[in-house]
Amino acid sequence: MAFRTARNLAYFSNYIRNYSTNGPLVNVTVNEKSGFATATLQRPSVNSLNLELLTEISHTLQQLEKNKCRGLILTSASNKVFSAGLDLFELHKPNADKIKQMWSTLQEVWIKLYGSSYPTVAVVNGHAPAGGCMLALSCEYRVMLNNFIIGLNEAQIGFSAPMWLIDGMRNTIGSRQAEFALTAGTLFKTEEALKIGLVDEVAQSKEEAIEKAEKFLNKFAKIPPHARSMTKAALRGANIQALVRNKDEEVRSYVDFVTDSQFQDSLGEFIELNLKQKLSK
Amino acid sequence: MAFRTARNLAYFSNYIRNYSTNGPLVNVTVNEKSGFATATLQRPSVNSLNLELLTEISHTLQQLEKNKCRGLILTSASNKVFSAGLDLFELHKPNADKIKQMWSTLQEVWIKLYGSSYPTVAVVNGHAPAGGCMLALSCEYRVMLNNFIIGLNEAQIGFSAPMWLIDGMRNTIGSRQAEFALTAGTLFKTEEALKIGLVDEVAQSKEEAIEKAEKFLNKFAKIPPHARSMTKAALRGANIQALVRNKDEEVRSYVDFVTDSQFQDSLGEFIELNLKQKLSK
Amino acid sequence: MAFRTARNLAYFSNYIRNYSTNGPLVNVTVNEKSGFATATLQRPSVNSLNLELLTEISHTLQQLEKNKCRGLILTSASNKVFSAGLDLFELHKPNADKIKQMWSTLQEVWIKLYGSSYPTVAVVNGHAPAGGCMLALSCEYRVMLNNFIIGLNEAQIGFSAPMWLIDGMRNTIGSRQAEFALTAGTLFKTEEALKIGLVDEVAQSKEEAIEKAEKFLNKFAKIPPHARSMTKAALRGANIQALVRNKDEEVRSYVDFVTDSQFQDSLGEFIELNLKQKLSK
């Protein structure tokens, strides 16, 4: 297990440093003592998920997997927004080919993060609507700061969250709450999110949130990593396989939907009425 | 969207009025301001689901779908019984062909109500055993008056709720509570039903219940209807498709079961011992 | 229904008595008044599930099914350990053919107990890690004595609980809690297990636990047994069928896994560090 020796940790740490230089939208650091990586999203201004950021997240996850990461903390460089979700400006009057790549990369991010062999925590240190909530949900644990919002508000924007994300929501907060939340496109305040189980803990500062995240990761210190990853694969594998089987079909269907004028009208209206307002709160 | 213009609302309202004249077992009114329809079951004396009532409910749901209903409140004209469920007197010493049509129409009602594109609320203003509970469960929200009972008591009557109804129960109250409730055929009092999540709110009067139902429906006022219905289809589609695939097979199996002497004996006993007593409470 | 006449009860009771003489690892008694059977595991010292005990449990369940048992209470003759789970000493440096038979018989025990036509209660009167928790989970109700531990700690031992057991855990405590519990291999104290729903009631003595178990079984006194078993089959059938389809494949995969040196190393370490300590608490 490469990660368990100081030499390999150092190697990995260097590797990540080089990699971060090439791709500045995600900053990855590794705590050499614990072996935990922290991946910080830092695409100005609100970590909107465009193709470049999604590709870099996907690449980061692949490197962490390859280097036998012992645990990941996913967080944001902004102190206002964890991630604003899919870059709606790129979905508006889009290039169909770019939409295709975006959606396909979004699927890859879910597959790699939801299905990672290592334990994962989201430190939600800002708003997390739609794709931001998706990133948080794909982790195993969520610590959130006060006075932010989180939720799958896709219905408000004019479309439906994909099946794998709906399943992720259901597995987290249960079928009943998921139906309420998804049909209304609800954005929950931190305390509400805690109450329904959409987040696991609340912290008063990013430092406190990181501590809580590390405490969660440390729970697994004595579990043989291969047994833990087998167990996680057994728990999450069926959902991932369902997406893998349906990947291309789903991409086609989303591209058709997004490029349709009905959605474009809804989206245009949503951007006008809500977007800047929501994100500037 | 037909429903959004006054002209079309009036047309729909007239249409329903004519339709109601032809089939007096369900009374449908439309609030022209909100666009919400209220369907009131009014088959004397306890809204037992016989073939005629089931057919009329199914027809009503189809018309609401066609006319782009903005929301449905399902309730009862009785102040004692929401619906007593399948008409057990028709299941007792039955005509096999009628049973076949009844079950097939019951499936249609579930498919149309559970899968409706518009939001739905049951105002449970009376007892709701078995098929009565099924109607309530197929809505998205349940407001119930005090001092009544609701539940899937099929096991008490001598058979099993069908798979789609079991799934509906599980999605509402969770697997654990559903197993308890279904194996014991439990009928819950209003307050117990609220506690386990089988109903969402309690009201002191039908008027208050209708207000709460409208408040629920109004939550979706700003959600684009096509996005909401896509989301609902994603959430509920798998269960509906499972029934659609198994529809004929299930009809055959229920007809065989119901016409068998073992069930007929159980049913005869149940009718003697419980039925009038339960419903006259 | 054989069980309902005194003559047949006596016959069954005798039969079981003879059977128990042949297989002394499970003691079965039948309360002639209630028709409830009590199966007491009595393999010294901690009811570790070796091939012999698993075979006898499987045989017992088959006889109970054949003789139309009205309800089963599963408990332990030890006042410290309900069951310590799979006999890890037999998994350590194993005979591959014996492992194959053990796993296959474990599957049979699950299929027969989880899918029994009669209602089942575990009186957990001692520690119940791993396979001990599995036996408890496969019942419909769990009454546990204070100051013991229960849970699926397979990840700690170095492997993953099988899919059917994961599903059993999810159906009992929900997806979210199941993921936490399984990835950490958590062993819960009695009060914690009650809180998350892993057990249903706590008792202060075995006598009180048996009373509570009988009270649970008596809830079904007026439910026609065939309707109850149909309902249970509808609720649990899909999970059982999934295992039946995958039975041989799973056996092969577990034998390969268990005989691999990586698992043997983990297991050796676990036995050294934890086993005697945990069980002697």
TrEMBL record, chains A, B, C:
<protein>
    <recommendedName>
        <fullName>Enoyl-CoA delta isomerase 1, mitochondrial</fullName>
    </recommendedName>
</protein>
<keyword id="KW-0809">Transit peptide</keyword>
<keyword id="KW-0496">Mitochondrion</keyword>
<dbReference type="GO" id="GO:0004165">
    <property type="term" value="F:delta(3)-delta(2)-enoyl-CoA isomerase activity"/>
</dbReference>
<comment type="function">
    <text>Key enzyme of fatty acid beta-oxidation. Able to isomerize both 3-cis (3Z) and 3-trans (3E) double bonds into the 2-trans (2E) form in a range of enoyl-CoA species, with a preference for (3Z)-enoyl-CoAs over (3E)-enoyl-CoAs. The catalytic efficiency of this enzyme is not affected by the fatty acyl chain length.</text>
</comment>
<comment type="pathway">
    <text>Lipid metabolism; fatty acid beta-oxidation.</text>
</comment>
<keyword id="KW-0007">Acetylation</keyword>
<keyword id="KW-0276">Fatty acid metabolism</keyword>
<keyword id="KW-0443">Lipid metabolism</keyword>
<keyword id="KW-0413">Isomerase</keyword>
<dbReference type="InterPro" id="IPR029045">
    <property type="entry name" value="ClpP/crotonase-like_dom_sf"/>
</dbReference>
<comment type="subunit">
    <text>Homotrimer.</text>
</comment>
<dbReference type="Pfam" id="PF00378">
    <property type="entry name" value="ECH_1"/>
</dbReference>
<dbReference type="InterPro" id="IPR001753">
    <property type="entry name" value="Enoyl-CoA_hydra/iso"/>
</dbReference>
<dbReference type="GO" id="GO:0005759">
    <property type="term" value="C:mitochondrial matrix"/>
</dbReference>
<dbReference type="GO" id="GO:0006635">
    <property type="term" value="P:fatty acid beta-oxidation"/>
</dbReference>
